[in-house]
Amino acid sequence: MMGMMRNWRCRVSPILLVTMGMRVYAQDPNLTAISNAWVKENSFISAVPNTALPPNFEDIKAKLPEVIWPDRPEVVKCYQRTWQLAFANLHQVSAANGFVSPFIDPVFNQHIFMWDTSFMTLFGRYGHSAFNFQGSLDNFYGKQHQDGYICREISEIDGQEIFQKFDASSTGPNLMPWSEWEYYQNFGDKERLTKVFPVLLAYYEWFRTNRSWPDGSYYATGWGCGMDNQPRVPKGFAPDFSHGYMSWIDTSLQQILAANILIKMAAVLDRNADIEPVAIELKSLTAYVQNKMWDSKMAYFYDRYRDGSLSSVKSVAAYWALLAQAVPIEGEAAFVAHLENPAEFARAHRVPTLSADDPGYEANGHYWRGGVWSPTTYMVLRGLTAYHRDSLAHEIGLNHLDNVVKVFNETGILWENYAPDAVKGMYRENMVGWTGLTPISVLFEYVFGIRANVPAQTLVWDVRLTDAHGIKQYPFGAKGLLDLYCAKRRHSSDKPHLRVKSNIDLKLKLVWDGGSEMIEVKGTR
């Protein structure tokens, strides 16, 4: 979420004035754009808008997954309130905004944001049977320019773009491929994958052409990367809107992540020939960040200044390297260890967005100067999963959930972000919005340890709690609904006793402290 100035607007003018000699011509910027062939496959641009009213929470709450945790009723209450807030923030398409799908609002300034929406879909997928949260991204796809560009912030009122295209803050982060791939893991929706692939590839190509330096690395700004007030740019440059001539570590890593996912999508869709340039860049960009942005002594990734030196700011931005799977093999353990160091990221509330040993760190978080944010913490957790660091992921996820729920108990509010050194919510209230990630996705995937891989017809249940817990009506694929229950145990090494009811056949991979087992679940029809 952007900083406190995010209500500021800079509309795109429908024309540009171009001086040619003594005459001034009105010139449509679309006429000067270089068309991208993949945009011709973008069916969202010409889609008939879905003008249906979003559902009322009371009418659909019975369709949502039901959390079971008898020993933690306050967590269940927070979970239920999160869905209630999410459904209160749904909106209908209007003729004025030109959107194509009902959508969830980030609860900020009547604008939709690219990275907020990408994160909100990551918990919204669990409520898919009640509302198509994934469709919120369709409103960005429907606004794609013919050259592949998509603006990062768009007015919900009139559909106007808030930034001019070539403003350094106009777009990003490039997280939409991640959102779509996670959705595919839960639902196996190949039809949607087919529709979004050319859109995402066209945007990837625009981003590569217009957001990279000659050496192949990428740049952003404080607003463009989303973490607007982190002390990252060199002295003399505006932290909010200047790229500072830096290679930005998160933006470069996110492009690696996007490339990895586009390659996976192409394999599913049998379109490998379409992404050959992506595969080439993936190799070279990964080598760049490992050779030019990795400090082997510190075992950390840093922004790179234009003179070739590295920043000393330890930002959570570096941990996109886990999801991108770009960490040097020899440095993996030391890189992850920063997350376990109380002097850095293992604060009372984990994970701060700025290391506590940085001079710019603030104990109350002050937005991105150490604030704990649901989206970045979730990113870290998903990255730890990619490196099979499941025990640490559970530890951090439980700490994060406990702190969010404690604040909820005290205030009745889900906050925009949280103080790292106190049990305290910060800034805007009821941000569901992306704070919905914690009581839903973090609870399901990292506290309960339940993660779906529908294309492989497999559900992983990594049981680490000793409390009785479970989920009823857990969505699995287009039609699957699962009731999952784990009985109370005395020790974490005790084999869990499960009760599983499903309407479809699947494989359940049970993991616990004492071992693992593959279970064939037969659906009841």
Structural descriptors:
single chain; 525 residues; alpha+beta; four-stranded antiparallel β-sheet; four-stranded mixed β-sheet; 18 strands; disordered N terminus
Describe the structure.
It contains 14 helices and 18 strands. It is of the alpha+beta class and 525 residues long. Helix 12 (374-386) runs parallel beside helix 14 (438-447) and helix 13 (390-411) packs antiparallel against helix 14 (438-447).
Brief description of this entry?
This protein is of the alpha+beta class and 525 residues long.
Helix content: 25-40%
Spatial gap, N to C terminus: 45 Å
Strand order across the largest sheet: 3-14-15-16
Strand element count:
18
- Uncertain runs: 1-26
Strand content: 15-25%
Mean pLDDT: 94
Tell me about the biggest sheet? 4 strands, antiparallel
Structural class label: alpha+beta
Count of helical segments?
14
Q: Name the shape in a single word.
A: globular
Oligomer: single chain
Radius of gyration: 23 Å
